[in-house]
Amino acid sequence: MSCDEGYFIPIPNLHRSVLLCIDDNPAELRLRARVLFNAGYVVLTATNGAAGLHLFTHNHIDLVISDHVLQDVPGAHLIAEMKRIKPGVPFLMLSGLQDCPQGAEEADVFITKGMSPPELIGAIGKLLNSEPAVGR
Question: Coil, strand, or helix at residue 37?
Answer without folding.
Answer: helix
